[in-house]
Specification:
Keywords: Oxidoreductase
Bound molecules: nicotinamide-adenine-dinucleotide
Pfam families: adh_short_C2
Organism: Streptomyces inusitatus
Mean pLDDT: 96
Structural class: alpha/beta
Strand order of the largest sheet: 3-2-1-4-5-6-7-8
Low-confidence stretches: none
CATH class of the largest domain: Alpha Beta
Strand content: 5-15%
CATH superfamily of the largest domain: NAD(P)-binding Rossmann-like Domain
Protein name: 3-hydroxyacyl-CoA dehydrogenase
InterPro entries: KR_dom, NAD(P)-bd_dom_sf, Peroxisomal_Beta-Oxidation, SDR_fam
């Protein structure tokens, strides 16, 4: 056992399987008391069962660590609040949350139904909000804490998972808002975009060239939760096996200014040559793959 998180209390959503499970196990092995949240659903979010979270909590206890399971659905305000309340009731404080609960409902945009859109947004984006909301109120009082959102490289866009991509883009903006809003209270917020072998990545439509294990992701998350990363906030890191990468902050690429009012005609003359467009890396990839580029 290491001591990266000695004395800390960490809550992890989606901790019954995959990346969340690895984060919970490594956090406990590094000295944290862990709230293991998992609603125990199928990949599409259906058929909840509580057993997966409980079995991870038992695994942690069997290895000599401290853990408690919470089977609530974090896409509800009550579920997010309960994850935080259990941390306080069991361990008296909360030093970090990691929002790794996730589901997939893949469909092309032109065929996507409300039943495919809403639960995906509710699990990833609202499910990060509910936990961040409840945790940040505690951390603001404590004047310390770390919020970790789980995004994806597909926040850049996705051919057949517009719901998932939109939710993951939302997670990035939520994390940056948390970093800004909580900075003066000593609370940090960062996002991790993992690529790891789980039941979810087994269902990704494109072949993943760079991929690792959930334990690689857990190592980065545990570092970000630790005091060694106290100065890091508002960042997005990819971890894919041996690779760690930093995503750029959104920024304006080029600007131009009008003299007088804009009209569509003036913009048509001005924009292409002066401001132009910023090529989408994923679109270029698609064009190369499909042979149009
Ligand atoms: N695996 C990858 O390569 C990859 C890539 C990019 C992003 N991610 C993200 O990482 C996170 C973890 O994914 P994973 O690959 O470990 O998937 P996974 O399916 O193995 O685990 C997700 C867990 O979340 C739980 N869950 C789902 N809805 C929930 C809810 N409402 N409340 C509580 N728990 C709920 C599930 O029961 C499941 O155990 C997700 O946010 C996913 O989008 C994963």
């Amino acid at each position: 056992m290491g001591n990266f998180l000695a004395g800390k209390v960490i809550a992890v959503t989606g901790a019954g399987r995959g990346i969340g499970r690895a984060v919970a196990l490594v956090a406990a092995a590094q000295g944290a008391a862990v709230v293991v949240n998992d609603h125990g659903v199928a990949l599409d979010g259906r058929e909840p069962a509580s057993e997966v979270g409980e079995s991870v909590a038992r695994e942690i206890a069997a290895a000599g660590g401290r853990a408690v399971a919470v089977a609530d659905d974090i896409s509800t305000m009550a579920g997010g609040q309960r994850v935080v309340d259990v941390a306080l009731a069991e361990y008296g404080r909360l030093d970090g949350v990691v929002c790794a609960a996730g589901i997939l409902r893949e469909r092309m945009l032109f065929n996507m139904t409300e039943e495919e859109w809403d639960p995906v947004l509710a699990t990833h984006l609202k499910g990060t909000f509910t936990v961040f909301r409840a945790a940040s109120a505690v951390m603001r009082r404590q004047r310390s804490g770390t919020l970790i959102g789980v995004t994806s490289g597909s926040h850049q866009g996705s051919v057949s998972q517009a719901n998932y991509s939109a939710a993951k883009g939302g997670v990035v903006s939520l994390v940056r808002s948390a970093a800004l809003g909580l900075h003066k209270y000593g609370v940090t917020a960062n996002a991790v975009a993992p690529v790891a072998r789980t039941r979810m990545s087994a269902n990704v439509p494109t072949e993943l060239k760079e991929i690792g294990e959930p334990e690689d992701v857990a190592a980065l998350v545990v570092y970000l939760l630790s005091d060694r990363a106290r100065e890091i906030t508002g960042q997005v890191y990819t971890i894919a096996g041996p690779k760690i990468a930093l995503w750029a902050q959104p920024r304006e690429v080029r600007a131009g200014y009008a003299e007088g009012a804009w009209t569509p005609e003036r913009i048509a003359e001005f924009l292409p040559g002066t401001v132009g467009a910023d090529p989408m890396p994923l679109l270029s990839l698609l064009e190369r793959r499909d042979g149009h580029g």
